[in-house]
């Protein structure tokens, strides 16, 4: 193993890791927004909204994320959507993970005991009040872990932006392989950085989950 | 007002799909009256109770509370506003308590009054203290429900319902989920409400309790009221064969 090479290139990898972190954060925020909207559509009283939510979920979970990225980045210009790679990639991945988060959030809301809603409605609280004050506070606790699983997946998913030349970790590894012919070292370095990031996020999720449980 | 029934159920029918659960039920309850509903499992007792506050709306028939029709047919928004309003007058206590686990006892009791009646924090706190004192749990005000025994949970649930100052209270097997030694403390609270002349409709499997507290007993079977009358008649001298059969099983214990 070429330790000296690793020491020489690692600053570039750190910089790329920062891009991966940025991508992950933005994707996560977009995903949560899409997930929240999607979940409320799926749970709506109105049939067209429910239908729209269901189509969103099955469309984005039913096709490879890579294809979604390609359609937006390569296909976009054909229909007048011109986005740089970073923006197109973030949007595509965010909307994609949002479909998974839709199901996570919806599942957590549905897992709150029906008796909770009945008790609140019986007191005279409206559907909205019941959702905000009784159901969501309980569902929020239950969705922390499964959302953690989605976030783990989206971090790894940012590697899908390498083929459209976003300078993130995987792309950086590939680029250095081109000039050094040392794929083992380069991918190992990228892998370690992914692992550290994912580990740190995992700790954060655990902490949140514990905190939510105690109070 | 005096001769007008307080709660009236007229020709109530309810189906879940093809299953007809209630068939032409009529019931009137006077102000301050306490009515027990007894009957075998699946006879429709809970469904009838849940029809009174529109949790399980009737398929046909009418429910009235103090001159106001509860199950009005209205456009969606107006209907929602209407039921939210009338439900404030109808307290309900569930078999499994359904306390809000993320709120303290205080939060459980004050949530709805603060939100729906615009009480200030001080007023709401005072209300919570009053209601808790009534069910004998003043010292538990800052506990979370998970720290309470079943009997205490049910008493808090009763306090929560009473905090809305309802006109009528509905109890659906309030003591069925409790360990036997915890039943009495809940029964005592209900007896105390009876002494205060709270109008109550009580679904129960406890015949002794029904006999000692209620003014009237309804025996239901397969979605119809088979027989009704004062407890002395229903428990000691039932007229219907089905009532006698049911009581033979339940009184001999
Ligand atoms: N939401 C529902 N959907 C379909 N069927 C239902 C529903 N709720 C109740 N039923 C059916 O209606 C019938 C009456 O149920 P209900 O709960 O009113 O009986 P009950 O007299 O309260 O019985 P128990 O003593 O066991 O509580 C049962 O056959 C039950 O399976
Ligand atoms: Mg029942």
- Global outline of chain A: flat
State Rg of chain A: 21 Å
Radius of gyration of chain B, rounded? 18 Å
Major β-sheet profile of chain B:
6 strands, mixed
- Main-sheet strand order of chain B equals 6-7-8-3-9-10
Give the termini separation of chain B.
Answer: 42 Å
CATH class of chain A: Mainly Alpha
Which class best fits the helix and strand makeup of chain A?
Answer: mainly alpha
Describe the oligomeric state of these chains in a short phrase: heterodimer
Structural class of chain B: alpha/beta
Strand content of chain A: under 5%
Number of domains of chain A: 1
Summarize the amount of helix of chain A as a percent range: over 70%
Bound molecules: adenosine-5'-triphosphate, magnesium ion
Main beta-sheet annotation of chain A: none
CATH topology of chain A: MetI-like fold
So how many helices of chain B? 9
What would you say this structure looks like, in words?
The complex is a heterodimer of chains A (215) and B (253). Chain A is mostly helical and 215 residues long. Chain A has a single domain (3-214), classed as MetI-like fold (Orthogonal Bundle), CATH 1.10.3720. Chain A contains eight helices and no strands. Chain A has helices spanning 3-42, 47-61, 65-75, 85-110, 114-122, 127-157, 169-180, 183-214. In chain A, helix 1 packs antiparallel against helix 2 (47-61), helix 1 runs antiparallel to helix 7 (169-180) and helix 7 runs antiparallel to helix 8. Chain A is flat, with a radius of gyration of 21 Å. Chain A starts with a helix and ends with a helix. The mean pLDDT of chain A is 95. In chain B, helix 3 crosses helix 4. With 253 residues, chain B is of the alpha/beta class. Chain B has nine helices and ten strands. Chain B has helices at 45-52, 76-87, 105-117, 121-134, 150-162, 180-195, 207-213, 231-236, 241-251, and strands at residues 7-16, 19-29, 34-38, 60-65, 68-69, 90-93, 168-172, 199-203, 216-221, 224-229. In chain B, strand 7, helix 6 (180-195) and strand 8 form a beta-alpha-beta unit. In chain B, the strands form two sheets. Chain B has a six-stranded mixed β-sheet with strand order 6-7-8-3-9-10, sandwiched between helices. A four-stranded antiparallel β-sheet of chain B has the order 2-1-4-5, with helices on one face. Helices cover 40% and strands 24% of the residues of chain B. Chain B starts with 6 loop residues before the first strand and ends with a helix. The A-B interface holds A 113, 115-116, 118-127, 129, 133-134, 137-138, 141 and B 53, 55, 80, 84-85, 87-88, 90-92, 94, 96, 98-102, 111-112, 115-116, 157, 160-161, 164. Adenosine-5'-triphosphate is lined by residues 16, 19, 21, 39, 41-47 of chain B.
């Amino acid at each position: 193993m070429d330790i000296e090479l690793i020491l020489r290139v690692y600053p570039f990898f750190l910089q790329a890791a920062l891009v991966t972190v940025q991508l992950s954060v933005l994707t996560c925020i977009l995903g949560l927004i899409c997930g929240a909207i999607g979940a409320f559509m799926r749970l709506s009283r109105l049939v067209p909204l429910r239908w729209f939510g269901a189509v969103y979920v099955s469309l984005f979970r039913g096709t490879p994320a890579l294809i979604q990225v390609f359609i937006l980045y390569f296909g976009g210009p054909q229909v007048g959507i011109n986005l740089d790679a970073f923006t197109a990639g973030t949007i595509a991945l965010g909307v994609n993970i949002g479909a998974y988060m839709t199901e996570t959030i919806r599942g957590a809301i549905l897992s709150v005991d029906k008796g909770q809603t009945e008790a609140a409605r019986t007191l005279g609280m409206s559907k909205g009040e019941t959702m905000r004050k009784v159901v969501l506070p309980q569902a929020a606790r239950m969705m922390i872990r499964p959302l953690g699983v989605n976030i783990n997946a989206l971090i790894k998913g940012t590697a899908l932006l390498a083929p459209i030349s976003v300078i993130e970790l995987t792309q950086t590894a590939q680029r250095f392989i081109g000039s050094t012919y040392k794929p083992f070292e380069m991918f190992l370095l990228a892998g370690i950085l992914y692992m550290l990031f994912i580990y740190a996020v995992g700790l954060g999720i655990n902490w949140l989950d514990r905190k939510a449980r105690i109070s | 007002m005096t001769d007008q029934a307080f709660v009236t159920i007229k020709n109530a029918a309810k189906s879940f799909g093809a299953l007809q659960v209630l068939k032409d039920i009529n019931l009137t309850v006077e102000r301050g009256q306490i009515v027990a509903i007894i009957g075998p499992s699946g006879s429709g007792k809970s469904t009838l109770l849940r029809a009174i506050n529109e949790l399980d709306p009737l398929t046909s028939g009418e429910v009235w509370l103090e001159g106001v029709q509860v199950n009005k047919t209205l456009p969606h928004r107006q209907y929602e506003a209407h039921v939210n309003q009338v439900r404030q007058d109808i307290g309900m206590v569930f078999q499994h308590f359904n306390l809000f686990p993320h709120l303290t006892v205080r939060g459980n009791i004050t949530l709805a009054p603060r939100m729906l009646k615009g009480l200030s924090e001080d007023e709401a706190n005072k209300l919570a203290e009053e209601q808790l004192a009534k069910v004998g749990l003043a010292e538990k005000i800052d506990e979370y429900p998970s720290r309470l025994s079943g009997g205490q949970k049910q008493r808090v649930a009763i306090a929560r319902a009473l905090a809305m100052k309802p006109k009528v209270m509905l109890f659906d097997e309030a003591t069925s989920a409790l360990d036997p030694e915890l039943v009495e403390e809940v029964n005592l609270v209900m007896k105390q409400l009876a002494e205060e002349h709270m109008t109550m409709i009580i679904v129960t499997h406890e015949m002794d309790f029904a006999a000692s507290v209620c003014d009237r007993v309804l025996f239901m079977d397969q979605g119809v009221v088979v027989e009704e009358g004062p407890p002395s008649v229903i428990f000691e001298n039932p007229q219907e064969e089905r009532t006698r059969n049911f009581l033979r099983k339940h009184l001999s214990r």
